[in-house]
Design brief:
heterodimer; A: alpha/beta; six-stranded parallel β-sheet; 18 helices; globular; B: two-stranded antiparallel sheet; 11 helices
Chain lengths: 488, 230
Amino acid sequence: MQKKDVEQKTLRRDGQDGAQATDGQNAAKVENELAEKPSPTLAPPGPRERRFRQTELPPHFIERRKHPRISTEPPPPAAPPRLEDYAPIIGRPELDEIRFLARQLQAKTVKMVNSTAVGGGVAEILNRLIPLLNELEIPTRWEVITGGNDFFEVTKGFHNALHGGDYHLTKQIQEIFLAYNEQNRQRMQFTEDLFVIHDPQPVGLIRSRSENRGRWIWRCHIDLSNPHRGVWDFLKPMVGQYDAAIFSAPAFSRQLGISQYLFFPSIDPLSEKNRDLDENYVNKVCDDFGVDRSRPIITQISRFDRLKDPVGVIEAYKLVKKYADCQLVLAGGGATDDPEGAVVLQEVMDAAGDDPDIIILNLPPWSALEINALQRASTVIVQKSLKEGFGLTVTEALWKKKPVVAGAVGGIPTQVIHKLTGVLVHSVEGCAYQIRYLLTHPEFAQQLGKNGREHAKENFLITVNLKRWLLLFQILLGMAKPSLPAKG
Amino acid sequence: MATAPQMPLMRARWARSPFYFNSASHLLRIGKEKANCLQELLDAMRTCPDSSIFQHTFQTLEEHHFIKEGFSNDFAHWAFAACNEVELAERLSSIDIREFTSISTLRERLVQLTESHLQKNPRAATRQAMEPFYVMAADLVVIPTPYVARNLEEFADGMRKVSIHSIYYHFIDARLRLKLNSNDFSVWLDQELDMRQAGERLHQIDIYTSTLEGVRRSILKVIEGELARD
């Protein structure tokens, strides 16, 4: 039924072809529509009359856009993948190398500690990483620190302060932080060979270092490029006692007397957010949300947050829309449980006005499969952030071979190598121009997508990080000696 | 991967010593140096550890093995993308790491090119870059693989099966270990199978205009040609 609707609409649009178009075909159609206009130049043109005929949306799409079918209940959790499941993705030789590195560590034990078992990026990473380490016969135990509301208020304050926010660090705050760290330290046992302490909350556990001969690693997932001086000065002596620290970007690191390593955040290619999907399912999700697959789809996936610049994306789309019959999908969450998110969502809806081709989806947290489908249905994926950590939504898009237009902030330039794995932009106008360029140059868009996939595969998959952990464990335990380039 | 083409029956030429395929993995260490302008980059080039020069030239070629276009080392890429110094970027990019069998001579060349550019363009030296250059270093760990070749057929078989990291290790990284303007594959073919010409043909494969998968295909083309001749 849905396909019939699409075919009828496509027929009305170009009068010839009723078949459902692929991304490349969509772009080629746009190219045909633009054939009479001169090649785009770097300077974005001023306002002009639309050169294409605006698609008249069938009632089916209008209804879906007003009332998208959003699942109200989380699906049952999927079983975590086994290492062997990654073989078709990363290749047998790569898997063999991981197993070889793990074999030498099989008698070693690991403890990982963080501050929450559910929710948040760190818990998500550990939920995937720890089963893989255990499967490799490296017994890995995950422990979560406990504390009262006063402790978590302090750590939330620290978190914001370490991101550069104002903070008044008092003696009492320091005592609360240290007392709960000590309480957790007394409760836990430290008999393992390796200890990985995640983020600042449990950093004080390092006091147990003297009780054993294990190696201690501090994994910092947050951006320390501009920390509150007082808070960092308080934490730094504790961090300095670790054997090594790990950061997600060079810019996030600090001057420390210990070795600092770079581990990029990673995605799991077998998670619901990233695994391959049946094309029928992608069509169903588009149908549920009123997304028309016969026309180009520009998508930004992110929570409704001003730092993701959703209003800027709408402005860019409006500039593109003068030349191309496209749709914009803004999908994300955070507007239900976050008062500021709700305000931003309203701003976004105001900016969208009555344009029927702007589809705004406030999705619940269990929408990983739907987001996956929307990304796969997209012609171009945008991440026009004004400030960003690493930007895993960009990684997800690269993995799905999508051409990406992204703001040159935070960890995005590490992923998007300009004109090789995507395009970087610094303004609304630049964003609009690059989207137009990609819509009209499908071969270039396809090449970016292909390179982007390889870049993600080589650097940003969970299996790459698993290998990094194994290498680091071996180096810190003195089992592997890094071979430095021969002296000249 | 496609299945191997059927080779005609041949008399196996046995190597005097087998070829053991290894692979290498690396961890990125965040260095202490950071450059906000070209003068600071030049200072860092002079003082950073060998492992950093290695990371930003040899290793980056492996990290971006899937790209044929663009600048071939991190210094060149930064000079272009963050400093808009196209001429310097082109010059730095023209450095062919195959010509260097030691990090110190490679470092000298990088310093010399940057120094000479800044002498001609002194204002470029202190102009703030759009983003800093973070000096990194690579900790390389060698990993054995199960693949061993005692003749050309087994060599081709191993070549089809190893990871691209193994090809990088033997074909590109090798010249620093060997201190020879060659690679592990060519040296083995020459010394163990008396196949100098085939080794030279491997040496001529252009790593800058091919991906590492492309290098693998080119190597196999040469080896399969030799097998077909036998």
